[in-house]
Structures are given as C-alpha cells and as structure tokens.
Amino acid sequence: MSEPVTSIRRPVRLEYDFTAGRAMSRFLLGLAEGRILGQGCPECARVYLPPRGTCPTCGVPAEEEVEVSPRGTVTTFCVVNIPSQVLVVPVPYVCANILLDGADVPIFHLIQECPIEEVRMGLRVEAVWVPAGELKATFESIRHFRPSDEPDAAYDSYREHL
Amino acid sequence: MREVAIVSFAQAPSVRRETERNEVEMLTPVIAEAIERSAISRKEIGFTISGSSDYLAGQPFSFVTALDAVGAWPPIRESHVEMDGAWALYEAWVRLQIGDVDSALVYAFGKSSPGDLGEVLALQLDPYYLAPLWPDPVSLAALQARALLESTGYTERDMAEVAARSRRDAQSNPNAQVASDFSVDDLLAEPYLVSPLRKHDCPPVSDSAAAVVLAAGDLARRVCERPAWVRGIDHRIDPHYPGVRNLAESPSAALAAREAGVGDAPVDVAEVHAPFSHQELILRDALGLDGRTAINPSGGALAANPVMAAGLIRIGEAARRIMEGNARRAVAHATSGPCLQQNLVCVLEGD
Ligand SMILES: [Zn+2]
Questions:
Q1: Are residues B209 and B91 in the same domain?
Q2: d(CA A71, CA B222)
Q3: Which of A3, B100, B123, B248 shows its CA 20 to 30 Å from the CA of B242?
Q4: Do B71 and A10 touch (CB under 8 A)?
Q5: Do A57 and B71 touch (CB under 8 A)?
Q6: How far, in Å, CA of B51 to CA of B315, rounded?
Q7: Would an 8 Å CB–CB cutoff place B31 in contact with chain A?
C-alpha cells in the first residue's frame, strides 16, 4: 500500500474590478481636493460619511452633497499593540471613531501627535492632510487626526453616534 | 395552502458592465419601483429576503450592504439565500404560509462583471476533483450539449433556432442586453466557440437587479387588479458531480414540474432559465412544454443573464404577463449550479 492522500494543495486567487459607485466616487474625488463630502438624507436629514447613495434607515436615495468639517470628536478608541503589516505606524498606536462636525456617522482613523494616555472619549481632533501636491482620491490623503486644542465635547453631543 | 400572489415586479436593464453604480446603487431604484407598484407601503412589508452571491461582488457580506437599499429601521424581518433570487422567492412563499405576515419583498442583484465570471463559477464545483481543474461554465455546458446531440434527435440547427427566436423576441424587451434578427443559417455559419457551442448558444455576461413583491389573499386582491397567484412551486436538485449524471436530461426539473403541477392544465407562456440554447431543449422536455406554449417571449437568459437575478426575472416576466392580462396560466423556471443541476419551477395563474 502506498501512503494515503491526506491533503491536496489547491491555490485559489480571484481578481475583481471594484466599482466604488457614484456616492463613494464623489467622496474619494473630494479628498483629492482636500474636502470631506458626505450625503444628506431628504427624509431624516442624517448626513452619512462616507456617503452610500442611500439612507439605510429610511431606504431612500440620499444624494444631497454635504461638506463636513475636518474637525470632530473622538467617540470611542482603542490602543493597538499588534504591528500592522501594511501601516507604517510604530506600536502602540491609537485607532478611533471620529464624529466629524456636520456628520452623523463617525469615521475610523488614526490619532497621532498625542500621548496615548491622553486620548479619551470626547477629545476634539482635526485632520492632518498630506501636502497639497500629494492629495489623491484615497482616504490616505488624510494622514491622521491630532488634538485640536479645543475643550472636550460633552457626552450628550455624541451619545447618539456611538 | 394559503393563497399567495406576485403583485409587482421591477428590474434594471441588463448591461455588460455597469461601471458607475455599485450593487446597492443599482438595487435602490429597482426596489423602490417594485414597492411603489405594489401599492403596499415600505413599512407594511412583512418579510424581506434577497438572493445574491458574495463571489460575484468579491466582497464578504455584500448582501448585508445591500440592505442599505431597503430601509431596515425599525428592525425588519429579513433573510438571505446565497442563491438566485428565485430561491429567495420560494423562502418568502414558505414564510407567508405561516400566516402572521401578509406581504414580502424579494430582491436579487447580480453584478457579474467585477470578476472573471468563468473563474468565479468554477468555484461552485466540487473542491477536490473538479474545481482544481478550473472548468469554465461554457466548457461544462458544451459537454452537456454534446451529450444531448449524441443521444437524442436534436441537432445544432435546433439549438440555433432557440437562439434566433430568443434574440428576435428580445428586440421587444427594453431590459434585454442582446437583441438581434439573425437567420438560423447565418448563425450556423459562425465558428464554434467550444464545440458544439457557438457564441449565440451562450449567454452574455450581464449586470442587473430585480425585485418582486408577494402578497397573500385579500391583500393581494386589494392592491393588484390581476394578481399572479402562485398555484404550485417546487425545487429539486440533481447530484453535484456532473460525471454521475446523464447530462442530456434533467430529472430534477421534471420532478419539480410534476410537483408544481405544470401539466395539470394548458400553459400560455413559459419563462425558462436556460443560459445555453441546448438547455432550453432539455427543459422543454423536462417540463412537458409543447408548441402551444410561448417560450421565453422576453428573450430569456440568452438575451440577458445576470447571475443570481436571472431566475427571479423569469418569475417576474411570467407574472407580468398575467398581471397585464396577456396570459392566464404561466410557468416560470430557474436554474442554478453546473449544467442545470438545481431547478425551481413555479406555476402562476390569473383569477
Ligand atoms: Zn433617512
């Protein structure tokens, strides 16, 4: 008897052309101009960021363009101690949900230029962009967020967005 | 059995490659149109279910993202099948039998263009013996066509007649992707793509989406002048491995047709999901359809084949003919898997 077959190798790789869609395309093209563009719902007035073309709450198209502020509030955060294979940020570093002024959905980004033990819920932060000549249609056009030296936001101002 | 009817249907025109809109953006106007036509308000819909495949989009949980198009707040009753939307419609029909809800939204999205569809569909095959060889669906269908030609009296001319009729009929379907008027002799003069299949024997690669609203009993009568009542619905499966089947016939489609009651009365119109021309020949025999039935007046899957939505579109097209008063009894069929492996048959009737 020969050895039983206990495993086979079967490499699988599929490639896709991703369609960002109209809403996400407008958002990404805005970043190339140093602007942060969301979309507002005509029924409930929520502003979605990144925009999705619809309001998932109301189930209607939400295509009204709304420019939101590059400043916002940390709603929650975590301290990452595992080195990333793709991010060139030394550990430990902080990832946070940031509710930009004028948006109803927080975005996910890095907090830098701030001691880790000083990051907290309610911390006010501002976007740090790459130099104007390096702006592109990618989220990486915002390098990170840093404290904006404003007083902390009150819990009630972001409790609905946690 | 509780009486359940299709009361509205909407679809996006099929295109080869939708580069501007993503899946959710394609779906949003289709769902809105189906709900508006149903005259049932979005908040009243009792059950919501979708059919799609993450492998097409190349994104995990793409069906969850698609809920953006629905408006799922306050929380709704929702389900999903990783199959053609026709099977989602089956689950919705079962759900309506329970009796606590009276309406259901069924939708399907099939954006086939982001990946290489042949490679994507190879991954539905048995992972040990077949998928490592990456057989594409056209080659598998060609094996089936050869088995049919060699074991029956059917000829390549019969196949070309199916293709010519389908694409001629598609000229009056604004949602069709491939429509043209060719003679059978012109088609037979074309070279083989994968012998015995020529290009016209194969479906186009299509991006589209579709939605159907179901309603039970009195609600269906109240919101729809001519509801398309689901009088029978059944789905069956043949073995997964093509090598153990006689590919020239479709026992699962024949059994589903019998259980759904296709042969109980004459059929005015049938929409059968036959992505390849020879598969219509197999299905006509399995379903027991003859010359008295108009087959695929929409052009069928040879005119537009959005994977995961094409089966639901067959049901919608059949229902539309009843709702518009152009047919009294219709049959719709959907297929999935390699070489007609899985088959669903639905019998629809007007009052
Ligand atoms: Zn809204």
A1: yes
A2: 53
A3: A3
A4: no
A5: yes
A6: 14
A7: yes
Residue B122 lies in a domain: no
B302 alpha carbon – ligand 1 mean position (Å): 39
User: How far apart are the C-alpha atoms of B213 and B10, rounded to whole Å?
Assistant: 9
What are the chain B neighbours of A8 within 8 Å (beta carbons)?
128, 132
Chain A interface includes B42 (CB < 8 A): yes
Q: If 0-12 CB within 10 Å is exposed, 13-18 middle and 19+ buried, where does residue B152 land?
A: middle
DSSP calls for A86-118: S---PSSEEEEEEEETT-SS-EEEEE-SS-GGG
DSSP designation for B226: S
Residue pLDDT, tens place only, A30-48 = 999 999 999 999 999 999 9
Position B215 in a domain: yes
Q: Are residues B9 and B104 in the same domain?
A: yes
User: Measuring CA to CA, which residue among A53, A57, A19 is closest to residue A38?
Assistant: A53
Global ipTM: 0.87
Whether B103 maps to a domain, the answer reads yes
Domain boundaries, chain A: 21-161
Give the pTM.
Answer: 0.94
**B1 vs chain A: nearest CA distance in angstroms?**
32
| pLDDT per position as a tens digit, A99-134 | 999 999 999 999 999 999 999 999 999 999 999 999
Examine the domain organization and report whether B218 and B193 are in the same domain. no
Question: Does some domain include residue B121?
Answer: no
Q: Are B208 and B13 in contact (CB under 8 A)?
A: yes
Cis peptide before B74 (omega within 30 of 0): yes
* pLDDT number for residue A17: 93
Give residue B110 CA to ligand 1 midpoint distance, Å: 26
Range of the domain at B27: 4-116+205-228
CA of B222 to the centre of ligand 1 (A): 29
* B281 in Cβ contact with B141 (< 8 Å): no
Residues of A whose CB is below 8 A from B19: 19
The contact set of A with B (CB < 8 A) is 8, 10, 12, 14-25, 52-61
How big is the CA angle at B302 (ends B22 and B138), to the nearest 5 degrees? Answer: 85
